[in-house]
Design goal:
227 residues, mainly alpha
């Protein structure tokens, strides 16, 4: 008997596990934010050491650097990720008439962007500066907007696939693409010398925390009650 790969979302799931995940993510996220804000010397030294090494590689290997610029500016760019989020929202409305879920998806992405920009302004961390830069970027450094946006969008889309019962093959492909995208975009930002390593880690942590809190909010207030 054939069963559809993706169907209507199941009944309201329990949120105990989501609470634990959010709590587990909150602690390292806040700790890293504080350490960056106070310019903790050991972290700053580690960031500088990583940045110096990767910048030497970037200058020496122009082919890889050019490929990374294409990936970070077009494939994994925050705008590309937000368009992917918008496409998923349109699909939810067109295919399933899930207006609330579509709004939740778009609002989560928008709030994530607002939090990201607010933290950049509040922390005001300077980006790495080089006499021979291979790329440039605007705004403050912490957290990495590329890393955070990719984490939020990929995390939300993976959760939606789980919610709608996507098949094993689809889920595995989506998970592999998401892992490559999230890790890849962070590494490209470090390689190109426009972010410190802790900026990228902060973007990953904040993005994951945003997804966990958004899922918790949906499970508490938005999930359909079904028997």
């Amino acid at each position: 008997m054939h069963t559809p790969t993706v169907g209507a979302p199941p009944h309201r799931p329990p949120n105990t596990r989501t609470v634990r995940v959010a709590a587990a993510l909150a602690a390292p996220t806040v700790l890293l934010l504080v350490l960056v804000a106070i310019s903790w010397a050991p972290l700053m030294s580690l960031d500088r050491g990583i940045a110096d090494t990767t910048h030497r590689w970037a200058v020496a290997d122009s082919g890889t650097t050019h490929a990374f610029r294409i990936l970070t500016d077009w494939v994994w760019d925050p705008l590309t990720m937000r368009l992917l989020c918008a496409a998923a929202a349109v699909w939810l409305v067109w295919r399933y008439r899930e207006w609330w879920l579509a709004i939740w998806l778009v609002v989560t992405c928008a709030v994530g962007t607002a939090v990201q920009q607010g933290l950049k302004a509040a922390v005001g961390r300077e980006r790495p500066a080089w006499p021979d830069p291979v790329d440039s970027a605007h705004y403050a450094a912490f957290p990495s907007g590329h890393a955070m946006t990719a984490t939020v969008v990929c995390g939300l889309l993976l959760w939606l696939l789980h919610l709608y019962g996507a098949g094993r093959v689809v889920t595995r492909i989506a998970l592999a693409v998401s892992v490559v995208s999230v890790l890849g975009v962070g590494l490209t930002r470090i390689w190109l010398g426009v972010h410190w390593a802790s900026d990228v880690v902060g973007g990953w942590l904040l993005g994951a925390l945003a997804v966990a809190l958004a899922v918790l909010a949906y499970e508490k207030w938005g999930a359909p009650r079904r028997t």
